[in-house]
Design goal:
Elements: H1 2-13, H2 18-28, H3 33-45, H4 48-62, H5 69-90, H6 94-103, H7 111-120, H8 125-148
Helix pairs in contact: 1-2, 1-3, 2-3, 2-8, 3-8, 4-5, 4-7, 5-7, 6-7, 6-8, 7-8
Length: 157
């Protein structure tokens, strides 16, 4: 049983799949829903402070390196451009925009991407972490309901 919890925890930490894969895995493996959900949220949130505090610095450091420079520059420019567009559109609702960006389980969204965007936008650390946490909780609820078949009757997904 501990092995299944650990697998769910580590799946939650993997970029792109994150909690969106860990919750269905947990349900499929027969883990108690509430405990598995909590483990998945914690696993998904572990990298968030590290990403917020260091990802932008690593991208800035690597942008002038020979092999990785073009990709890192692309990431910075894309993030900055997207961040400015989001800032202009969301205005004072940036917190809610970040929460929904992380919370709606679509490809390319999630805690990793949302935290990186918050870092590039120079959002407040505490506000960003809270928005990402609430988004992760929302994504977990959505994935849990989808995995349990609750939303299948609505024909939304």
């Amino acid at each position: 049983m501990l092995k299944k919890y650990l697998i769910a925890f580590f799946i939650s930490m993997v970029p792109l799949i994150e909690l969106r894969a860990a919750v269905p895995y947990s349900i499929a493996m027969g883990l108690p829903t509430l405990q598995a959900y909590i483990v998945c949220i914690v696993g998904n949130m572990v990298p968030v402070p590290i990403i917020f505090l260091f990802a932008r610095k690593v991208l800035e450091w690597g942008k002038d390196k020979k092999i990785i420079g073009k990709f890192f520059t692309f990431c910075l420019e894309k993030g900055h451009k997207g961040g400015e567009k989001l800032k202009a559109t969301a205005g004072r609702g940036l917190f809610v925009a970040l929460l929904l960006f992380v919370g709606i389980p679509l490809p390319g969204t999630g805690a990793w991407t949302g935290t990186l965007a918050a870092s590039i936008l120079d959002m407040d650390f505490k506000e960003s972490v809270i928005a990402v946490l609430l988004g992760v909780i929302l994504a977990g609820v959505i994935m849990g309901l989808l995995s349990a078949g609750v939303l299948s009757g609505l024909k939304l997904f």
